[in-house]
Amino acid sequence: xxxxxxxATKEGDxxxxxxALEKVYESRKLALSLIFNQVTPSGNSLLHVAASSGSDDxxxxxxxxxxHIMTQKNSLEDTPLHVAVQDKRLDATKKLICGExxxxxxxxxxKDGKSPLHLAVAKCERQQSKxxxxxxxxxxxxxxxxxxxxxxxxxxxxxxxxxxPKLLHxxxxxxxxxxxxxxxxxxxxxxxxxxxxxxxxxxxxxxxxSYPIHIACETGHLSTIERLLWNTWPDLAEIKNKKxxxxxHVAAKAGDIxxxxxxxxxxxxxxxxxxxxxxxGNTPLHLASMHNHCEVMSSLTKAKVIDLGxxxxxxxxxxxxxxxxxxxxxxxxxxxxxxxxxxxxxPRSEGRDVPSPREQGSGASKSSPAEWIKDQVNTLxxxxxxxxxxxxxxxxxxxxxxNASSDxxxxxxxMLHHGMFRVFVIANxxxxxxxxxxxxxxxxxxxxxxYVAELTYHSVGPLLLMALTGMSVAFFxxxxxxxxxxxxxxxxxxxVGVLYLVMVVVVLAALIxxxxxxxxxxxxxxxxAVSIFDKFV
Length: 537
Known about the structure:
Blueprint: H1 3-11, H2 14-28, H3 32-36, H4 46-53, H5 56-65, H6 80-86, H7 90-99, H8 116-126, H9 132-139, H10 144-150, H11 154-163, H12 178-185, H13 188-197, H14 212-219, H15 222-229, H16 247-254, H17 257-265, H18 267-273, H19 284-290, H20 294-301, H21 318-324, H22 331-344, H23 369-396, H24 419-446, H25 450-459, H26 461-482, H27 487-512, H28 518-536
Helix pairs in contact: 1-2, 1-4, 4-5, 4-6, 5-7, 6-7, 6-8, 8-9, 10-11, 10-12, 11-13, 12-13, 12-14, 14-15, 14-16, 16-19, 17-20, 19-20, 19-21, 20-22, 21-22, 22-25, 23-24, 23-25, 23-26, 24-25, 24-26, 26-27, 27-28
């Protein structure tokens, strides 16, 4: 840029500006368009310089003849409007806004992600707030309305809407409106104000085709959902995103039990949503089962209007989906989900009575899954029966025996007031009842289909752990009572009993609740190896 032309522009004298322009034209023989397109080392155009200096007359002259310069950016990607706002040139700002045919320029962002509108609002706020830095972080990268919603500032939101109502239609990077932003954080005041100003915002969608009520159901803000339920559309079954999912689909997929229960209580709405399918043919129950949201599955299956046998586009029922997606959940959580669906009567698809290779465990590799699980159930049934028999016998043959008929309390245990005797009684009772309960559970699953048998096989593990632990405690407690008169022997029996009890619990826990972490397996293996080595060395 010519130095004299730069100085004349900065000074703001129109006559000097025209004289400097003529000199450049005559000396360099350049077209006017090329002269006006010249920039400073920082990339500032003549309009940038005029806007920054408050040279309103020169700026107006430039805008009349070369309005396109209005959109030109410098090295910081600031437009002349950015510069005018930053330097607090009010008249220049007015001229630039009024003279620009492209109204979107007030939203154009510079390298810092700030639009002229951001800068203007930030400067107004800074005059009222001492915490400039905190506000700058909050306001950066969003329109004033979105900033007000995020800050829960109702007054700023109201003022922004009154001054610039067009901001109601400004979209964020995900295509969401201010209503979407308010729904995502549960800003009830903002929802009420936006519905009052423009109720049609509730019918705007983002890039995913989601309505604000979809966002509210996904994030679980109940008060927001309640407000939008009656202000979105009379028939909410028609409100679907690009995946064809209604609001119950979204809530079920997110696992938000509070939102699901709210929709269940809205009987008229719920009837139209519960059996609806998305583009993949999945119902809300399918999605809840796919992500193993047990509470949601339980609530949905209890509904009288639900069709438990519906299949998706792959021909899968909700139980099929749960069985195939078990890898995404912990085993116990997945089993609970399966139990809920089986208990509710959700069927398996034809031809799926035997699990697919994905559903089979590693133990079923050498035989069919049904045969393998049957063998496992029979083995556990034998163990549980033996524990029940042993503990029942121990309960009748108490250590120390009973008082004779000639004693003050005939038939009572002779060691009744001994501390370890009480430990024996409690542990033996716990072991016997746990083993009996395990037997009952295993018998229930013995003659059922594969999946019920598998469910009983996995669920009986904790019962057997309790039974074997209780039996171990009862044994060393009984021996301790029997040798209690010899202190060193009693202490030895107690110490060895506790040591081996810990070993039993650790090994059984590792077997029943297998860890997917290699570290845990190594620790258990090392623990067992050291124990055996110490025993024989």
